[in-house]
Specification:
The complex is a heterodimer of chains A (about 270) and B (about 280). Chain A is mostly helical and about 270 residues long. Helix content of chain A is about 75%, strand content about 0%. The radius of gyration of chain A is 24 Å and the shape is globular. In chain B, the strands form two sheets. Chain B has a two-stranded antiparallel ribbon. A two-stranded antiparallel sheet of chain B has the order 3-4. Chain B is globular, with a radius of gyration of 23 Å. The relative contact order of chain B is 0.13. Classes of the chains: A mainly alpha (about 270), B mainly alpha (about 280).
Chain lengths: ~270, ~280
């Protein structure tokens, strides 16, 4: 029996190999992209030594600066708006007996997850171009409204999950102790649901920051965000500057996910 | 309490879909937009084309080619993500309890990474001067770079790459609850590995298979960024054809009709999914 492993009911031959290969394939392109953002040369395939050159050139690029500021501004506004509205919606739809119209509300809230992005993008293009013609306004508000809308389900889901796991008796206790409904909400409910609200706000921020398709269709002239700027650049010859911008966009996602992972692990 | 959120969704997501439906029955304006005149031209052009000289009606071959490519690539992508995703999900689900969160974390990072960045990353790998061709050249396996970028294969590879986590996550969720005593019982009854896989494991995780397939198929069918970046303009999919009608093609009613078509297909897929899930839970 030497050298032969014990029979395990869970083993299926070849599965582990395929799985490890999948993990390698998932990460190899991303790692390559990050590595070549530090390339001293012009190529995205031939390594010519380490440098911060492309980060500096991206940092000094006016278009990139403006797009980055616009991206962060839109994501902050969309995240704030969608989180507040999603919190209210979550309070209105959980912790009560099923009611008529509940399915309609769920469907509406989750609708941005179901409808293909390109269809929503086209719909908003048509709708907002009507408003643009009627009012003459062509500011950032269109992008903020669009982003807030598709961020709602991403903010709503973690908040609802948090609320559903919460103990209703605590609020009853607060009311028994003569807390007004507002005090009970402010001192009991809100602090308890805060982790869900924060998770929702961060998800909404990342989702808004990453959006390409809807932004590409809704934006007016001169309203590039980082992703639409990158999409435009990809049509031309690619320089490692795009790698540098990609890496900069990757960092918040990876940091947030790692933080969530470590927090969860510590809790359990 | 839900009213403000619903109002925003009506303005910024659901309501405009109705306008698209209306627009699909209007006449195109000269430059862009529509003329408020009822017309079936938009829907007519989805599958037919009219010769500008002698008015003969033909099937719109260009559109049919794009529909066929969209369907083919989406199905192949779903099959391939399943072929790779199933073993991966099984691998994660059979790790010791304490290691599973780490493997799952490794799947969620690419899942949450910007789709454009991932598409760009795979583009760098498969381009003629990219890592893949450089490595094959260096190893002497090929004499000149293989043209992968800007082909259907590139679009498919790109979609498999970006949608793989969407397949793995629901499959894992189903497999995590798999009762391995049933697998053990099958082995005790002299089942071979193949039979255990096809007769015990696959039927038990079927809801996860359906969920993963729908989650991959729907965004693949409506894909816009991946075919645009990796297909290079020629190898369009439905999403790119829709965009064309609002850009250079300038036929808003046709673009609207195509959007509604895509929406209906997606809704049908979702209905199949919901039915499957509810009949599955009814059996228990």
């Amino acid at each position: 029996m030497a050298g032969r492993r014990a029979f395990s009911v869970k083993d299926l031959p070849g599965f582990a190999t395929i799985a490890i290969a999948c993990f390698l394939v998932l990460y190899a392109p991303i790692v390559t992209l990050v590595v070549y953002s530090f390339n001293a040369g012009d190529s995205v395939a031939i390594w010519q030594g380490f440098s911060w050159r492309w980060y500096e050139s991206a940092w000094d690029n006016r278009q990139v600066q403006e797009a980055a500021i616009r991206s962060v501004a839109i994501a902050s506004a969309a995240s704030a708006i969608s989180t507040v509205l999603a919190t209210m919606a979550a309070l209105g739809t959980t912790r009560r007996a099923p009611f008529r119209g509940q399915m309609v509300i769920y469907t509406l809230i989750n609708q941005p997850l179901m409808v293909p992005e390109i269809v929503t993008a086209v719909a908003l293009l048509i709708f907002f171009s009507m408003i643009k013609i009627a009012t003459g306004y062509s500011g950032l508000a269109y992008l903020i409204v669009a982003h807030s809308a598709f961020c709602i389900p991403f903010a709503y889901l973690p908040i609802r999950a948090r609320l559903e796991g919460m103990d209703l008796t605590l609020e009853t206790a607060a009311a028994d102790l003569y807390a007004t409904p507002w005090q009970a909400f402010r001192r009991v409910t809100l602090p308890l649901m805060m982790p869900g609200v924060l998770a929702g706000a961060m998800l909404a921020f990342v989702i808004s920051l990453d959006d390409v398709v809807i932004t590409e269709f809704v934006k007016s002239a001169g309203q590039e965000t980082l992703p639409t700027y990158m999409l435009g650049q990809l049509r031309r010859a690619v320089s490692p500057e795009v790698n540098a911008i990609s890496t900069a966009l990757l960092v918040p996602t990876v940091v947030l996910l790692t933080a969530f992972y470590l927090l969860n692990r510590r809790r359990s | 309490m839900s009213a403000p959120a619903l109002a925003l969704l009506l303005v910024g997501a659901s309501g405009p879909l109705l306008i698209v439906a209306v627009y699909s029955f209007l006449s195109p304006a000269e430059y862009s937009g529509v003329v408020w005149e009822l017309s079936g031209d938009g829907w007519f052009r989805v599958v037919f084309s009219r010769d500008i000289f002698d008015d003969t009606v033909k099937l719109a071959d260009a559109h049919l080619t794009i529909f066929w490519r969209s369907a083919k690539l989406s199905l192949l992508t779903t099959l391939l993500t399943f072929a790779f995703g199933f073993p991966t999900a099984y691998f994660i689900a059979t790790r010791p309890q304490s290691q599973r969160p780490l493997w799952l974390f490794l799947i969620t990072i690419p899942f949450w990474t910007n789709l454009l960045i991932r598409t760009f990353a795979i583009m760098e790998v498969i381009r003629n001067e990219g890592i893949l061709n450089s490595a094959l050249l260096a190893l002497g396996l090929i004499e000149r770079p293989i043209q992968i970028l800007y082909t259907d294969t590139a679009v498919m590879l790109g979609m498999v790459y970006v949608y793989l986590p969407l397949m793995v996550l629901p499959l894992y969720a189903a497999m995590e609850r798999l009762d391995f005593r049933l697998v053990e019982a099958a082995y005790d009854l002299y089942a071979t590995r193949r039979r255990v896989l096809t007769r015990v494991i696959v039927p038990l995780v079927k809801p996860g298979i359906v969920a993963g397939s729908i989650l991959v198929f729907i965004p693949a069918l409506g894909a816009y960024v991946t075919p645009r970046v990796l297909g290079g303009g020629k190898n369009m999919m439905l999403g790119n054809l829709i965009e064309l009608q609002f850009g250079q093609g300038r036929h808003w009613p046709l673009g609207s009709a195509l959007s509604i078509t895509l929406l209906v297909i997606v809704m049908l897929a979702l209905i199949v999914y919901v039915r499957n899930v509810s009949s599955e839970s009814a059996e228990r």
